[in-house]
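thread: overnight batch results

M.L. [08:02]
morning all. the overnight job finished for the chain we discussed friday. pasting input first so we're all looking at the same thing
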Amino acid sequence: MINLFKKKHFHPSFNAALMTIMANGLAIGIKFTITLISIPLIIGYLGASMYGLITTVLTMCIWINTIADGGVGLSLKNAIIKQHAEKNSSEKISELISSAFFATLALSILLCLALSCIIPWLDWNKILNIQISISHSDLTSLILILLWTTLLIIPFSLPKLIYSAFQQEYLFSPWLILGSILGIGLQIFIIKENQGFILAASALQIGSWAGALFGTTWFIQSRKNLSFTFFNVKWQVLRGLAGSSMDFLLFQLTALAIFQSGIVITNSLLGQEKAAIYAIHFQLFAYLQMLTTLIIAPFWSILAQAYYQNNKLLFKKILGYLTLFIFLLTLLISGMLAIFGRWIISFLSHHQINYMPSLLWMLASYHIISITVGTLTLALLSINDTKLMRKIVILQAILTILLSIIFVKYYGILGCALGSLVSVSATILWYSPLRVFTLFYKS
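M.L. [08:03]
and the structure it wrote out:
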């Protein structure tokens, strides 16, 4: 068994980072393959408009998921990295893990129960601008099932962040892969047996939750040195996590507003048919975003450890090479998606959704900028340099939403992509490079 708490001076484990990247690459490859199977299944079974509605509802559930997490996950990750760098005992780390797990579990359940009482009373036909035939009870059931499965993933995903703090995220990747396979298997079975759109739409989320649950169970059984119990919950520790988690919550919420608001805005202003067009173009780049995030993630702890041990030369070298690699990778994949997007979208949608080259190129430009600059932003987050950044990302989120609403009225489906491109160019594009230069390169 790999010991998470080796008592020796820290040296960044690039072998561990490479293993994590390979494992994450395999996980995202399988997840992308499953998406190539799932989207045609859903569109063929339910139609393009229903696909647009399901994507919109799932996006809303992810927003609520972020609120329920409260930034505790990333706060826990940074706290563990710092404790490990200072060579503190596993007992203190156990208190961090136990406090975070039971707090997020309780909050997720309470939020599910509260929203389950509120959601049935809301007029979702007006809220979601429904233009297809669907009963209120069916729509409410869809929202509730997606909500419960999305929220209950939160506490059972914490082991992934714990492993990540020790550069061992690859140990949790098999459970993510298992969840993806379970989800698509369940979806195929439901569609084949014609069990209805509610279960078909929520199958992937149910599979993801099951994979996270199995992974957490395995983590508890295999890591006996971590007393992962309710008795290790400490109010003082929880208060410390909550204090630093607010910044991470803010960044997660604004990131969702920046990356996911386009689907909801397009659905609300233009309807499910147009939302489906925007969603399927955006989906291609969503997996590019996920891929680059999984590549960058192992370096969070390496950068943080190097910074806390005052090894700024190593910090700069890693960040420089990583940023260049991510830029070239994003440029290459975005170009390939722009070239082959017509055939990919035609295949995924059973020829039901029109390909829009202008939308794809605009999304490609936006993601090249945001992902590359996001590498620098991650470096700042890893050392908790968030004081001014929080104001910048709030401004970016507000600009994204306002400009998207305005541009949708003038440019239709292109509006949200254009709003995102303008907002990122006006905010984080100049802030993160300037801040990194000021902290680490300015003499």
